[in-house]
Amino acid sequence: MNLTIDQIRGLFPVLHQEVHGKPLIYFDNAATTQKPKAVLDKLRSYYELDNSNIHRGAHTLADRATREYEQVRETVQNFIGAQESAEIIFTKGTTESINLVAQSFGRKFIEQGDEIIISTMEHHSNIVPWQMLCEEKGAILKIIPITDSGEIIFEEFERLLSTKTKLVSVVHASNALGTINPVKSIIEAAHRYGAKVLLDGAQSTSHLEINVVDLDCDFLAFSAHKLYGPTGLGILYGKRELLEAMPPFLGGGEMIKEVSFEKTTFNDIPFKFEAGTPNIADVIAFKPALDFITGLGKKSIKAHEDELLSYANDLLLPIKGVEPIGTAKEKVSVFSFIIKGMHPFDIGQMLDARGIAVRTGHHCTQPLMQRFGIEGTVRASFSVYNSKTEIETWAEAVARIAKIKNK
Amino acid sequence: MSIEEVQEEIVSEFEILGEDRESTIFYIMELGENLKEFPESQRKDENIIKGCQSKVWLTAEESDGKVHYLADSNTDITKGLISLLIRVLNLRTPEEIIHAELNFIDRIGMGNIIGSQRSNGLASMIKQMKLYAIAFQTKLNT
Q: Residue A270, preceding bond cis, omega within 30 degrees?
């Protein structure tokens, strides 16, 4: 599917509005992406026509809803190249997916003295669950250091690996810097020591081609709302043999085979991990979002976003006072920066006055900010519906702001 | 000038700026430059009013029945906001401060200009300034 930028923008109702009298420029896509009309329509039509609880109803509506819900599991399976749909578990979001692994895999397989490796550039949601687990189990958390450009130091990572390493949990693409990590090599190295690998794919799945079989990752966690889908829905991919060996995360309906007061037997995967009525509507409305991405093709999405990022570099880097944070060679479309003498929060608010939405602060990566010796950054993150004209307007606004303290 | 008169003055200054949001924010930032130097020794945790992204340090002293405020922030917009509060409330009696109705904030539509995060911070600042006044009032009455 070849669409012009205007045609793509036409699919996203929210983009066509003014903020403070200026056309909205939405550069906060790493926080959440906007939703195409097809997703909104699906949400509405599900509630208008098919709403019912899934898997057990003996009536037509329940059957329709169940079929649509399970079809999305297959769409997600194909989207990430998983071998079977049973390896796809629906959760609330990336955070819950990671916590599920920490609680379930962790409870069963992590013991005292075992080691878990994460990197300096992790989001808090890929730090805190492991700290909690390590505290509980007496396990040790090891941190991969990074360079000044924001890249993992691979030799240091290899030095941390040992037979004590049980799990490596790393971000595929950094939310604060944009760095794309060499996950294939990380996985290969970890597997040589028998360690399992979880990839935090929250920022990578919308930009990069991902094939879990080819990568050979053991777990992949990501969120629908960063892939043009609804909020409140996440995915956990796990290899069948691992998911089968792991105990349930939450107890309740749907996840059981048989319950008596003496003993409960658990359902098969994926249902073992989906206790209670799931987020049916949002799962069903996720399909048009995935179809949108597949229709455009990740290659052309990435090419467009790369062009925006490189244009952002061209226009922002010459501005006096602007310092980029995160200058890795391989990046997704994130431009994080500070301006000398100015607080990111002030910059964000001044950009908002021009209708430009960016993120400011520590981006839930405080240890990473400490690594760079800063409190936070201003982060502009670009998506498929952003244009070069928008980059120009933004750059012009940044130049005007930077001038206040950098004459 | 009375508290009301200072507030009137601020409101008319903002009216001159008109609707352009960016110039209004630039103006608020400029106001921050009027703040008196904040002593480094007072930049400590017990004087912090913490917001989500910006920090404010506030101290107060009473002499001759008037309250002297000193404040600072790590962000320029917040500095501007504090300077407005100080302009209205500094060197007043605790009595005046306690009963002051700070209507200029709503009248210039500050909430809309600075957003909800900073509005909450602004409310905490006012609360802390009034708490100091209440403490001094109690001291003066005993």
A: yes
Domains, chain B, in order of start with CATH, read 3-140 (3.90.1010.10)
Give the pLDDT of residue B140. Answer: 87
- CB contacts of A394 in chain B (<8 Å) are none
Q: How many cross-chain Cβ pairs, A to B, lie less than 8 Å apart?
A: 39
Quick check: helix, strand or coil at residue B106? Answer: helix
Distance, CA of A51 to CA of A68 (rounded, Å): 11
Among A343, A347, A403, the residue to mutate for chain B (most B Cβ within 10 A): A343
Q: How far is B90 from chain A (nearest CA, A)?
A: 25
Judged against a pLDDT cut of 90, whether residue B92 lies above it is answered with yes
Contact B26 A376 (CB under 8 A): no
Res. B51 pLDDT band, cuts 50 70 90? low
The CA distances from residue B78 to A101, A119, A287, B59, B71, in Å, are 42, 34, 44, 16, 10
Task: Classify residue A35: in a domain, yes or no.
Answer: no
Last residue of a domain, one of A294, A329, A350: A294
Range of the domain at A233: 40-294
Q: What radius of gyration, in Å, describes the C-alpha atoms of chain A?
A: 22
Place of tokens 């799931």: A278
Question: How far does the CA of residue A346 sit from the closest CA of chain B (Å)?
Answer: 6
CATH number at residue A94: 3.40.640.10
Residue B25 has its nearest CB partner, among A343, A349, A361, at A349
Cβ neighbours of residue A375 closer than 8 Å, sequence gap 6 or more: A343, A344, A362, A369, B74
Nearest of A108, A123, A170 to residue A142 by alpha carbon: A170
CA distance A111 to A163: 13
User: ipTM exceeding 0.95?
Assistant: no
Give dist(CA B30, CA B17) in Å, integer.
Answer: 13
pLDDT tens column, A190-242: 999 999 999 999 999 999 999 999 999 999 999 999 999 999 999 999 999 99
Strand B55-63 versus strand A359-361 pairing type: unpaired
Strand duo A115-119 + A165-171: pairing:
parallel
